[in-house]
Amino acid sequence: MGDAVTYSREDEIAFITVDNPPVNALSLPVRQGLQDCMRQFANDSAAQIAILICDGRTFIAGADITEFDKPRQDPWLPEVVEEMEACDKVIIAAIHGTALGGGLETAMGCHYRCAVKSARLGLPEVTLGLLPGATGTQRLPRLIGVKEALDVMVSGRPMSAEVAFERGAVDELIEGQDLRAGATAYAMKLLDQGTKPRRIRDIEINQEGLGSKFFKEYRRSAERRTRGFFAPEQIIKCVEAAVTMPYDEAVQRESELFKECMKSAHSAAQRHLFFAERAANKVADVPRETPLREIKRVAVIGGGTMGGGIAMNFANAGIPVVMKEVNQEALSRGLGIIRNNYEATVKKGRMSSAQFERCMDLISGVTDYSGISEADLVIEAVFENMALKKEIFGELDKKAKAGAILASNTSTLNIDEIAAATNRPQDVIGWHFFAPANVMTLLEIVRGDKTAKDVIATSMAMAKTIRKTAVLVRVCFGFVGNRMFFPYVREAQRMVLEGVPTQRIDKVAFEWGMAMGPNAVADLSGLDVLDKVNNEWADKPDDPAYCRVITKLVERGHFGQKTGVGMYQYEGRKSIPNPEVAELARTEAAVLEIPQIEVSDEEIIERLMFSMVNEGALILQEGIAARPSDIDVVYAHGYGMPRYRGGPMHYADAVGIEKVVSSISKYRDRYGDLYWTPAALLTKLADSGKSFADWAREQGA
Ligand code: CAA
Fold first, then answer.
1. How many angstroms does the Cα of residue 186 sit away from the middle of ligand 1?
2. Which residue stretches of 348-413 are H helix?
3. What pTM was computed for the model?
4. Which atom of ligand 1 is found nearest the CA of 136?
């Protein structure tokens, strides 16, 4: 237990060294060790100054998140931080890697902070549905100012060491990477100057610019970015307390608000996603040490919106990419869209002109298969048509170099069938991007029956390089994301036939937290695209009511946003209700003898979510996804489900599986077996009083 933190001394300088891999999280032995070592320092008459430093890849990266669901064990971090600050000899934090959450709070308990330039400092608790509960909400405003501290805590985004230095959170920047030597020199300087401990709690908050409306206006400005989330408002309340209350009272307030966050369903969901994202990286039968194929050049077949977005991901990561189109006109159009996208990013100040030029230089275009033979990874991104895809893969089989990974961006089609068009099915894999491909963070990686393990491992690793969150899935129509999205749209469509206004369904879904409601999303994706996918689906439900309104709108040439009319009408991008939809729904409902019914808000959510959950359970039963949490990652990253719901499977666990099954059974009584038969896995869990999380643990997933 003593090894997580050690005490040593060189002449008058004491070193308190944390060594708790992988990220020096503040688990109990670290908190205890810090307290013990600090007391040792206080009692060591030969030591005049102490340096708190960490071994390994980073400074303390926060509280130990795995401890959050367990009973509290003392010493609690705020006590450790306060005790450290009270020490009457100077303690310096020496920072490398990331000082995050409780890590930065510990550093702020020290009297001074030095950091290497590559370090980053932040309070990302909000991303876990929490607030910095070890006096961080009280200290950071004192150090860097109220507005700046609010921005750091409400966004959760870390500051670079240089920014932290400019703002006063870091007192000394260390040149080079030798932190220990730099921190020692800094300590000597402070000793020579006779510097006394500087306690942040004693710093007066700078009240400049804090007029009576400051917090009201801050809340309003944060509203759009933080819609629905619980923790941001709690953070603002803490900072308000920092400004209006004596320090000790405000700390007490922080502690109360922290406990509320910790108990909240939001935090449970957001913490679930934190671990879900990391678990998604692990593939049971593909060991971590699997050798990777080298990817130095990439080719993208198809320069449409999707192909262009895909190419940008690689250029952004510094990887040269060649894009193939069928003729010069299409190619020029594709390259033009990429240029426009980058220019818009530069205009928004999110990219420098030099970065823009560098990225454009990395993207080239061809109208034949020349250049493709040099690529280590080829991604096909043409439209969703099996015959065309097979033709392209046949061609790639002839032209691509041996060992190249051949990926398809198909969103629904069978990777095994595509792979069979080549003599190298082991090299074929699905890389399903989500539109817009340069923005959305999800990548569904689809393994075929014959996909080689190193192709899977390389794909997962490349996803990280291009800053995507990858989830590995197996072959089925629509894979995980779209397969579950179909019932979601299906239910929205059915409710429209039952007389529920389009905009009401979307409003309820939006208020539940979805980025957009199902009807608005259908219009954005293109009703023609959805209709085409339905028609390509061999097992399309034998149900004349299935997505009937979409089918009828498509027959009239109304494809959604792109034609200006769909489930809504569009004036630019602004949507207004389309009266034609209500009328069409009434007519079709009469033909299909669908009764007009009252549907409550609760039922809207149940039908949208539980239809997805049931499909998710089938997906798990069939082994298409490895774990329920993988499905949650797909929905958090690819479909605009709010992180505070934790994804559909976590949501089902939070509601209770028994409740889910009883609601599904209620809809089966009303609508019959076709859609609403509870999946065997759901029934099994409900009968045994278990959750998806319990099931995953039992599976060792
Ligand atoms: N607690 C427990 N485990 C943690 C952890 C934490 N705070 N941070 C990371 N880990 C674990 C990860 O789960 C992962 O474990 P596996 O290898 O078993 O999957 C391992 O450490 C490595 O993490 P990453 O894969 O994320 O490594 P990375 O190098 O890509 O990123 C990092 C490193 C930037 C530190 C990133 O892990 C991270 O952002 N961690 C969370 C930081 C954070 O949110 N801190 C605040 C915690 S809340 C808090 O401190 C509350 C408070 O006020 C008291």
1. 29
2. 353-362, 386-399
3. 0.94
4. 53
